[in-house]
Amino acid sequence: MADRLTGGDSSLLRRINAAVTLRALRDGQSVTLTQLVGDTGLSRPTVEGVIEGLVESGLVAEVEPAQQEAGRQRGRPARWFRFRAEAGHVLGIEVGVHDIRVILADLAGDVLATHAKEADETLDAEERLGVVRSTVAEVLRKAGVSRDSLWSVAVGTPGIVDRDGTVRLGTAMPGWTGLDLGARLRRSFRCPVVIENDANLAAIAEHWKGAAVGKGDVVFVMAGLSPGAGSLIGGRLHRGFGGAAGEIGALHLLGQEATPERLLSTTGKPLDPLDEAAVARVLRLAREGDEVARVATDRFLRRLVHDVTALVLALDPELVVVGGWAAGLDGVLEPLREQLSLYTLRAPEVALAALGSEVVAMGALRVGLDHVEEQLFTVDPPPAR
Amino acid sequence: MADRLTGGDSSLLRRINAAVTLRALRDGQSVTLTQLVGDTGLSRPTVEGVIEGLVESGLVAEVEPAQQEAGRQRGRPARWFRFRAEAGHVLGIEVGVHDIRVILADLAGDVLATHAKEADETLDAEERLGVVRSTVAEVLRKAGVSRDSLWSVAVGTPGIVDRDGTVRLGTAMPGWTGLDLGARLRRSFRCPVVIENDANLAAIAEHWKGAAVGKGDVVFVMAGLSPGAGSLIGGRLHRGFGGAAGEIGALHLLGQEATPERLLSTTGKPLDPLDEAAVARVLRLAREGDEVARVATDRFLRRLVHDVTALVLALDPELVVVGGWAAGLDGVLEPLREQLSLYTLRAPEVALAALGSEVVAMGALRVGLDHVEEQLFTVDPPPAR
Q1: Would you identify the family this protein belongs to, as annotated (chains A, B) (predicted)?
Q2: What distance lies between CA B87 and its chain's CA centroid?
Q3: Which tens digit of pLDDT belongs to each residue from B1-34?
Q4: What is the DSSP letter of A210?
Q5: Predicted local distance difference test score (pLDDT) of residue A2
Q6: Measured between alpha carbons, how far is residue A243 from residues A184, A345, B8, B238 in Å?
Q7: B 116-145 near A (Cβ less than 8 A)
Q8: Where does the pLDDT of residue A287 fall: very low under 50, low under 70, confident under 90, or very high at 90 and above?
Q9: Alpha helix locations (H) across B28-82?
Q10: pTM (2 decimals)?
């Protein structure tokens, strides 16, 4: 912050005061002016001035005294105020290989509606975007919320995504590599639209409401044929300079080792990574005791454990959260714990992801809310000269 | 910042103003009161009040008008002020396997004296600390600076170092693992003493004055038999939860691959990592065309390139800086660039370290200066309620 300060002038002070007052209002129920004075440490006239501005902007509403003080009639009635979480809305969206999922919440993050549609893995980009648009329309209709009421939209998708929302590499879905997903979706909304890698959003979601609550340095591993990872450092997402941090899926290429698709194959011919049925068949055979399938599954899991260990050595996180379809396999969590305790001085905790199929959309919702809170609750000092 | 603000009260404003005024003074030569008013955006009475406090504390001095305005005699003479960089001093120290190096600078970071002593690799911890103490004394004596004038001391050393300054793992030097280096050195100084991993400090130094100036996401690789790495993310050091981030030296253990000491051996018997002469002999033989030595060197370099690539996949930096004795070998930079361009979507730049043998001590000096600047130039808001 000190980098950007030019001086403690009175307009900075006004913005600090507005942010502080909003923060005091946001978390609670209705609050009296007197309570706000106590909570913020500001003077009564200052709080009155700030509140007046916030009521005008629609972010704060005065609550009828009757609602709060039934039966209390002595003296001047206290004035009660509340944060109007319904003043705006946020969308969290997952554009996945098999599902499109949309979550709608108010400015306080309370979920108002959610909707998911299946999408065929063979859909081209146009068709897939069509499903996204109709799912969004369905959620807004369900909740009776106008599109103009959206303050922020965040979207998660597999692949390496630029800061401006272009998919630089997206092999999981047809037509995805090179797609300017941000620009395409911005046509449907008037508010800012952010695109983010799905594993990155899963890390954020697990930190918000899942297995990583309260942990600052977290690696989320999306365990599957093409493992991806998202990392939080000091509670903040680490995207990497080109948005490709955690792309450990390429590790097996070093030293010309076999791909996961080949490792998990029982026929010598690599599996199609999008062919979930074939993957499921190998796993089922292995469970049933088929020797060839068991060897293939072991090979595949050893590779996964190796890749995650490399990531841990590079980042030294406090916690590794494992999600994705391969997370539930028997041979993942324990071998990973053993490997990590062998090769690190202080092995991180290893936990199964706690959030289910909504994890990516929930992470997107959190990113959208962060964007709103940045506007509302952060003091934005004037640029340095 | 918004997290910690409780309200824009007047004491916060006073601190903002003092920090802003000091920053405006620090970078330039002598400055007039009128210039300070312009540079800070503060009112003249405010700047006068702040300057009075800073002169009292010894951080600012009024400059005699005669020095600045010879010949200019009309009107009321302007008042000139300067930052007193000599009000305090900072030490940057490297405690290495073969050298102890100490750099002394003033509060503006201008180097006043530097001194290095050779240390035998077999010295035990007590003997090594003795060399550190005598080198510090020598530097202070050279510069004529009193020990009480030190505001901050930072120390770099190989190994995994706790935040409190305990060496958790330090195999490069006898008696180093488990040593509470922070506590031991704090006995010699009244000011704060910080201990940090040497590769981390090298990353900081190259970012400050070397090959990584202006780059935020940087990996510094200390290339040697036991490669270590330090990473900056967004211009800040990433230590990892347990201070072990970048400890890619353990990667070769995964999959039971051979150690670098074995890879570089020409006899089948692993080299002693501390035996620099043996390492130098293999490298010289390889240069001279000895086939066995050449094969061994190639093996060793392929391993190094592999480890660095794994780190790059995990972190996705903008720039990789390679330092340490192995950085100068022919087979490092080009093969690394090739490997990275094969396995990443956007390969980071690869550069040779620009700072020489002082790189770790320079990084330590920068950390010490950061600590001082945090105290001087940062607004420290009151804790949240």
Answers
A1: Belongs to the ROK (NagC/XylR) family.
A2: 22
A3: 333 334 445 566 677 778 888 888 877 678 898 8
A4: S
A5: 35
A6: 19, 29, 37, 17
A7: none
A8: confident
A9: 33-40, 44-56, 65-68
A10: 0.80
Taking an 8 Å cut-off on Cβ atoms, the answer to whether B13 and A13 are in contact is: yes
The nearest alpha carbon in chain B to A338 belongs to B254
Q: Which residue has the higher pLDDT, A115 or A379?
A: A115
User: Domains in chain A, start-ordered, CATH in brackets?
Assistant: 10-83 (1.10.10.10), 88-204+359-375 (3.30.420.40), 215-352 (3.30.420.40)
Beta-bridge mates of residue B237: B232
Please indicate if any CB of chain A lies within 8 Å of the CB of B315: yes
Average pLDDT over residues B250-274: 66
- The Cβ-side half-sphere exposure at A285, using a 13 Å CA radius, reads 18
Local confidence band at A11 (pLDDT 50, 70, 90 cut-offs): low
pLDDT above 70: residue A253: no
| DSSP designation for A315 | H
Distance from CA of A49 to the nearest CA of B (A): 14
Shortest Cα distance from B317 to chain A (angstroms)?
Answer: 5
Q: For residue B347, which residues of chain A lie inside 8 Å, CB to CB?
A: none
Taking the C-alpha atoms of residue B356 and residue B362, their distance in angstroms, rounded to an integer, is 10
Indicate the helix (H) or strand (E) that contains A340: helix A330-343
CB A21 within 8 A of CB A47: yes
ipTM comes to 0.76
| More confident call, A319 vs B73 | A319
Which A positions 37-66 lie with beta carbon below 8 A of chain B?
39-42
For an interface test with A, give the residue of B161, B218, B233, B321 to mutate (most A CBs within 10 A). Answer: B233
The pair of three-digit structure tokens given for residue A231, joined into one six-digit string: 């990392």
Residue with the two structure tokens 């003795």: B130
Q: Pick from B71, B150, B66, B148: which is nearest to B103 by CA?
A: B150
* Dist. CA A234–CA A341, nearest whole Å: 23
Whether residue B82 has pLDDT greater than 70: yes
